[in-house]
Write a structure and sequence with these properties.
Blueprint lengths: L1 E7 H8 L2 E3 L5 E5 L9 E5 L5 H6 L4 E4 L10 E4 L3 H12 L16 E2 L4 E2 L4 E2 L4 E2 L4 E2 L4 E2 L4 E2 L4 E2 L4 E4 L4 E4 L2 E4 L5 E4 L4 E2 L4 E3 L5 E4 L4 E2 L4 E2 L4 E2 L4 E2 L4 E2 L4 E2 L4 E2 L4 E2 L4 E2 L4 E2 L4 E2 L8 E3 L4 E2 H20 L1
Parallel strand pairs: 3-4, 4-5, 5-6, 7-10, 8-11, 9-12, 10-13, 11-14, 12-15, 13-18, 14-19, 15-20, 18-21, 19-22, 20-23, 21-24, 22-25, 23-26, 24-27, 25-28, 27-30, 28-31, 29-32, 31-33
Antiparallel strand pairs: 1-3, 2-6, 16-17, 33-34
Length: about 300
């Protein structure tokens, strides 16, 4: 998330009532989660295992729970609870995420020519929907979502729900607030009862021409390429990159933070536990190329048959 106006290190420290390391006039232009940080961003880190990753990231201000050596050209915000303070910054600069809606279709929504909105659709603040779209009954489109031209969204689908992102504390799970968006490009079809989560601070993106079947889940900050086919009951975790012309058949599940290469085909009920190269067909859990997996299964079958024959 980019701030409407740049902030200084001292201003953010004052907002959070915490100490800082660096020039008080050091410029901060936004706040982002580690997977999508850019120069000018704040990123938070609260575990020693990830200190170096945060310090070495593109972020130039690190919200951290320990005084460490500050990298050249960067600044530190020293917090007892970076997770909670990250939420405070999010809420301060994106207050709409906690405000109640006042109408089914927000007056700030922009809807293009020849787009049909069926009954019982909810469209939140600052939503943009292009031309010649068809939004079927009971679809929910959360604040700030962006939908291109010639998009069809079928009944009961939810666009822009919160990221599944929690910190485990002794008293329960503490939720990281989501202020990102969902961006759906032109000529995308989305089936019934799908759920597409917005980014934590960035965008979940579905590119041109992709077709998604019913009952598919897409996690936060995931990027789906052009002309992909994703079949029913597939579950895609957060921060996944799916390149162009990938096919995922029914009940595929993925781990977070992986990449599925261009024109890969993943057969039904496969668990994609690691990044995979494009241009190949995959099957099974743990995942491997389908021909290799089928050879393995045939070999196991022969072993069992020979053992039972003895």
């Amino acid at each position: 998330m980019k701030f409407k106006q740049p902030q200084t290190l001292a201003q953010i420290a004052s907002l959070l009532n915490i100490d800082f390391v660096g020039d008080k006039n050091f410029t901060i232009t936004g706040i982002n989660e580690i997977h999508v940080v850019e120069k000018g961003d704040i990123v938070f880190v609260d575990h020693p295992k990830y200190y170096q990753k945060a310090l070495d990231s593109a972020a130039t201000t690190i919200l951290i729970n320990k005084k460490v050596a500050c990298p050249e050209g960067k600044a530190l915000l020293i917090s007892n609870d970076p997770f909670s303070d990250f939420n405070k910054v999010t809420k301060h600069f994106s207050p709409l995420i906690t405000e109640a809606a006042k109408e089914n279709i927000s007056k700030s929504a922009v809807i293009g020519e020849n787009t049909i909105i069926q009954p019982n659709v909810f469209i939140g603040d600052n939503v943009s929907i292009g031309k010649n779209c068809l939004i079927h009954p009971n679809v929910t489109i959360y604040n700030n979502s962006v939908i291109g031209n010639n998009v069809t969204i079928h009944a009961n689908t939810v666009i822009g729900a919160d990221a599944f992102y929690y910190k485990n504390r002794p008293q329960g799970f503490d939720k990281l607030l989501s202020c990102g968006r969902v961006v759906i490009k032109d000529n995308v079809d989305i089936g019934a009862s799908c759920t597409i989560d917005k980014g934590v601070t960035g965008d979940t993106i579905i590119k041109e021409g992709t077709k998604i079947d019913n009952q598919v889940h897409v996690g936060h900050d995931t990027k789906i390429g052009k002309k992909c086919l994703i079949a029913s009951q597939t579950g895609i975790a957060g921060c996944v990159i799916i390149e162009d012309e990938v096919t995922l058949w029914g009940q595929v599940g993925t781990a977070s933070g992986i990449t599925i290469g261009e024109k890969a085909i993943v057969l039904g009920q496969t668990g994609v536990t690691k990044s995979i190269a494009g241009g190949k067909t995959y099957f099974g859990t743990p995942i491997s190329e389908s021909r290799e997996k089928l050879k393995e299964l045939a070999a196991i079958k022969r072993i069992v048959k020979n053992a039972s024959a003895k």
